[in-house]
Amino acid sequence: MNNKIARQAWLRWVAGLLLSSLSSLLYAATTQVAVAANFAEPAREIARAFAEHSGHEAVLSFGATGQFYTQITNDAPFEVFLAADQHRPQRAVDEGHGVEGSRFTYAIGQLVLYTPDNDVALDADYLQNAIFKKIAVANPRTAPYGTAAIETLKNLQVYDELKGKIIQGQNISQTFQFVQTGNAELGFVALGQVAQNEQGSSWLVPADLYQPIKQDAVLLVKGQDNPAALEFLRFLNTELAQEIIKKYGYAVAAP
After folding, report:
1. In Å, how far are 33, 57, 187 from 27, measured between CA atoms?
2. Which of 40, 143, 152, 181 is most exposed, with the fewest beta carbons within 10 Å of its own?
3. Helical axes 239-247 vs 40-54, angle rounded to 10°
4. How far apart are CA 109 and CA 248, in angstroms?
5. Domains (range + CATH), the chain
6. Over the stretch 59-78, which tens digit does the pLDDT of each residue have?
7. Distance between CA 82 and CA 67 in Å, rounded?
8. Distance from chain centroid for Cα 232
9. Residues 168, 134: Cα–Cα separation, whole Å
10. Dihedral angle sign, alpha carbons of residues 89, 90, 96, 98
11. Counting runs of H as helices and runs of E as strands, what totals does the chain give?
């Protein structure tokens, strides 16, 4: 009798497991996520963890926040927008592209001055001495880190002297590439791009030299009925995702 009861219990457990697996297969979904270029590495790790924990898939596209917003207003298929600022997500809501009440700050970025040269001591004095030929900055019209870089140069009162040495990347990824490939000796990039990099020298720019880089996420109208889009935004607020965000040199907003 006990064996029969045990066998029935085992069969019920197997049936439940099969049903759960089938449900996961049936309801697993994919969401298209536009991600600010500076957040590429943490976003990739978060997407992997999201897939493991939810069964859903986040398909990531990387680029400049301003360029993404233009694409969103022209009917691009994105369902979630992880911007490098707060302005565009709020504008998305105001202009009917984003879902009211879904916007929140997922990360707070930090600006660094970086060079691949291990033997350079970067600081404000290095900028003021201007002993370099080219400095890379992201386009301030489309990339918030570019705006922060220009604010820093102006607040240090070196912008007029250095503007002839500036080369602009379309986004923060291209700016970092300019520095890595030697097209510029140094450049302003996101701390998240070099936090895991042991090569080179960097100077963490004091936060009082530029406006805070609060990076907001928003659910776009195209994703409001997609469970993967909703779950991905929820996952960004989990302890696991926030630990990943902090590992890459970002702060997280207080709950």
Report:
1. 19, 11, 45
2. 181
3. 160
4. 10
5. 29-108+214-247 (3.40.190.10), 110-209 (3.40.190.10)
6. 999 998 999 999 999 999 99
7. 13
8. 14
9. 10
10. positive
11. 11, 10
Side chain identity at 61, as an amino acid letter?
Answer: S
Q: Which residues pair with 166 in a beta bridge?
A: 135
> Per the structure block, which two tokens stand in for 55?
């069964």
Q: Does the reported pTM lie above 0.70?
A: yes
Alpha helices in the chain (DSSP H): 2-27, 40-54, 65-73, 87-94, 124-129, 144-155, 159-162, 172-180, 191-194, 227-236, 239-247
Hunting for tokens 């990739």 — which residue is that?
Answer: 44
Distance (Å, whole) CA 13 – CA 11: 5
Nearest CA among 218, 249, 255 for reference residue 40:
249
pLDDT in tens, 168-181: 999 899 999 999 99
- Indicate if the pLDDT at residue 16 is higher than 70: no
